[in-house]
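[audit] Reproducing an earlier prediction to check determinism. Same input, same settings, fresh worker. If the tokens differ from the archived copy the diff job will pick it up downstream; this log only records the rerun itself.
[audit] input (372 residues):
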Amino acid sequence: MKSFIIIIFVVSAVLIAHLPSALADAKADRTNALYKDAAKHFVKGEYKQAVTIYDNILKSYPDNASVLKMKGVAESNLGRHQKSLVTFYKAYQKSPKDATILLGLGVGFGNFGEYHEAKRYFDLASNLYPNNTVAKNYKEFADKVIKKYPYKPTAKPKTAGDAMDVKTFEAYVSRISSNVAKEKRYIEYPNPSFDVIKKFLRDYEKWNFEQQAKAGSSGFPNPQVTTSNGTYVVNYKMFVNEQPPGLPLDHKGTLSQSIAFWESQKFTSNRGNAVVDFTDTRTKSDANVWVTWTVRKLGEGVLGHAHVGKGIVEVALGDYNCDGSFQLYDVESVEKIMRHELGHAIGLGHSKDAGSIMYPTMKPEYAYCLLN
């Protein structure tokens, strides 16, 4: 028996600013239709097509911060970091407190290894939005990487910072790009999502349990049941799959905390009170439960998968639903998915209570996606 947890994902369009004359309504309608068309390409990862449409819109609305922002993200996802930085800076001049724009500028400078300049924008975003997880993650990245990699920053123009006009900023970014090429500077990219998926896909079968998941749970031994002080103890042996080295977030912690949660729960049955207990095993054949974090697509909108009572537990680390490219979930979301799926592994079904960890739907948050 399989159980799934589903994400509800909604794409919303940003309307173009109202035109001053009622006679321009037809033009506004056409522009909104173009924006929605660009969004369709964007969420599929078809960034080149989206950029072409954004450019057409910008011919009529060159100062529209929303369109500039979306174009900047698309260019960043295409690896056009120089163009993306300039686009984000144009948007920044129109909307200097927009979190996505600030983070886009920080990511852009980070992609060139200009970490101090990246940190300036990450700090701005973090100070303005202290509860923004993405801003927090990028700020921590900048603080960490500055300590790890000393480098000589590219000199800024005399009219530095927010006083730069677009042409001056464009020339500044061009010098940065040239310097990076000459120095052959080592760059640790701010968003590690793409590198994580590469690590997983490099040796697909090693990191995933797809074949065993299809086979079902019948081949797994039943957990052993003992008693302690009149309470039944259901003893689960757990095999935890090896993971690629250097994952950027504490995913192992999501398992340990989920285990602690379920081991603290008291259950009732027709035979009396019961608790669960987990022990590690490195022998798959002895394990009642196999746990892995995965990047494989488990199904449309599916965040995790588990056999009920014993068998496989798979927890997705990210998806393509934020901006059309693979993006990692934040640690809190991964832990919620892990806790939910581990609940199925010990025999629990779904709950109708929206406040329960066993409720069948949730909307994950992302760790690094600019459009979070």
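[audit] rerun output stored. Observation attached for the diff report: The beta strands are 2-6, 224-228, 231-240, 267-269, 272-280, 289-294, 302-307, 311-316, 318-319, 327-328.
[audit] end
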